[in-house]
Amino acid sequence: MGNGRPRVVIIGGGFGGLFCARRFQNVDADVTLLDRAACHVFQPLLYQCATGTLSIGQISRSLREELADHRNVTTLLGEAIRLDAGARRVTARRPDETTFDLDYDYLVIAAGMCQSYFGKDEFATWAPGMKTLDDAITIRRRVFAAFEIAETLPPGPERDRWLTFAVTGAGPTGVELAGQIRELATRSLANEFHSIQPEEARVLLFDGGDRVLKSFAPALAERAQGILEKLGVEMHFGVHVTDVSRDGVTVTSKHSGASQDYPARTVLWTAGVEAVPFARHAAEMLGAQADRSGRIAVDADLSVPGHPEVFVIGDLAGRDELPGVAENAMQGGLHAAGCIRRDLDGDPRKPFRYRDLGSAAYISRGHAVLQAGPVKLCGRLGWLGWGFIHIAFLTGVRNRFSTVATWLAAIARSDRSDRTFILGGSGHPEDPYTWESVHQR
């Protein structure tokens, strides 16, 4: 193993990669954590950042700072783009497009998933997803700018279009976004405008199923749906979004095949996920099987068949219908590190056993649903349970304290303290969220 110390390369600084790296503290190994953002993001709270409740710093932390006490762990900024399984080498790309190589004895692929547009990637121009900090900032800009632009328009179809928000996908992220936008319109912004009535803003939620939160117990999903209806979210089930443009969406009924256009200048996409490009490339280079979404088939210990030195964890692990949730990634990261440590100690590996710690979804202030085994909570009890789970897993004590303080202030005042957005160039000539134009370039 080179100089005698095993080299462990971890790709991805999300929950799986971070928890894996943490477990190598004081282990006689050289660990490199490679991430394209150089920070850990608490993804379950991205929508709170997007709708102005929390700041970027409250849901993210520098990986270098987080791992400062782990002297054998090096954090590097870069995006994995190639894998040479025979040479045990990963090639990464810097932001300036130059590349560098990382040799490994053990490789942990924790790169996660990205937003899927089901082969219609052109939708991304008008319908941002919710996977990164950049996505959250983009959505914040679009949501708050929509109200500002509507304020400058006379009553009529164009103003109505700016005050209509379409959300695709009724899973936890879609439900949370839809609920937050309605709550934003009816509480935080209700008395701040003169020409428009923000509470008249429409939020349309589209999904191909027959209810919200399909992964939750039917009773909890029904309760969540009732809360959304009371908030004023308009729900459309049994439909697929088949087109997205500058002016709105087209949805098609799964049963009749009939299509209908919905004018909306703000479209948000939460309908599906797929493996990042490197994961698909890695599966090919490793000769591993992958499903349609790009999840890689793994053995019982989360290693790739035929490659015991390579582990795949989190959303990318295709085994036993493991859920794409933070708890699975964290447990997988700890397990992969544990297997490597057992190898170094000459002990046999153990199979991975996922422990379901529960799922939760925030609907609005004082309303959330939570299920953990036989425990099923909704309303204020669910909301308190949701808050406890999220605060417990936030990285950094400072993040926990500041997040709790912000939530308490928001609850007391119906306020959102991080509503700042910047109108900047996106590079798209028709993007309405910039002062630039084709003629000014």
Largest sheet: 6 strands, mixed
Termini, distance in Å? 54 Å
**Low-confidence regions:** 436-441
Task: Count every beta strand, where a strand is a DSSP E run of 2 or more residues.
Answer: 25
Taking Cα atoms only, what radius of gyration do you get, to the nearest Å?
Answer: 23 Å
Calculate the mean pLDDT score and round it. 91
Number of helix segments?
12
User: Which sequence of strands runs across the widest sheet?
Assistant: 5-2-1-9-21-20
Structural class: alpha/beta
The helix content is: 25-40%
Principal-axes geometry comes out as globular
Beta-strand percentage range = 25-35%
Structure report:
The chain is an alpha/beta fold and 441 residues long. The chain has helices spanning 15-22, 46-50, 56-59, 63-66, 133-151, 157-162, 172-188, 218-231, 277-286, 326-345, 379-393, 397-413; strands spanning 7-11, 30-35, 39-41, 60-62, 73-77, 79-84, 89-93, 99-103, 106-109, 113-115, 164-168, 202-207, 233-237, 239-245, 248-253, 259-263, 266-269, 273-275, 296-297, 303-304, 307-312, 317-318, 359-364, 367-372, 375-377. α1 packs parallel to α10. The N and C termini lie far apart (54 Å).
Note the main attributes of this structure:
32% helix, single chain, oxidoreductase, alpha/beta, four-stranded parallel β-sheet, FAD/NAD-binding_dom, disordered C terminus, 12 helices, 441 residues, six-stranded mixed β-sheet, FAD/NAD-bd_sf
